[in-house]
Amino acid sequence: MRDDACVFCRIVAGEIPSDRVHEDDAVIAFRDLAPKAPVHVLVVPREHHRDVRDLTSRPELLAHVVEVARDVAAELADGEFRLIFNTGASAGQTVFHVHAHVLASGELAEGEM
């Protein structure tokens, strides 16, 4: 599943460069271009799903996103982290391809995610 107009689908496909910190058959994880914390990584499923609600039918994929978030925080920070899914425009979602924000190593910067 892919949406050719989706920026994250294009990042997954390698059409747009990213600073990847993890990739496997199900997800990629890359550094956010506008970080809100010293460690700010996005964990993005390779398949296009609009938001985290779509993953209720894919619990194994949702669990894998959380596992990758845990591993990224362990590797890049002290293992403690915030995991945020923005769901819907009024909740701050700007790219409508499900993604988890992994934030660690300090206070959040001001502004939206």
TrEMBL record:
Looking up CDD domains in the UniProt record yields: PKCI_related
Give the protein name, as stated in the record. Answer: HIT family hydrolase
Q: Where is this motif: Histidine triad motif?
A: 97-101
The record ties this protein, via SUPFAM superfamilies, to: HIT-like
Q: Name one GO molecular function term.
A: hydrolase activity
Keyword terms: Hydrolase
List the InterPro entries hit by this protein, alphabetically. Answer: Histidine_triad_HIT, HIT-like, HIT-like_sf
PROSITE patterns assigned: HIT_2
> Domain HIT, which positions?
7-113
The keyword Hydrolase appears for this protein: yes
Active site residues of this protein:
99
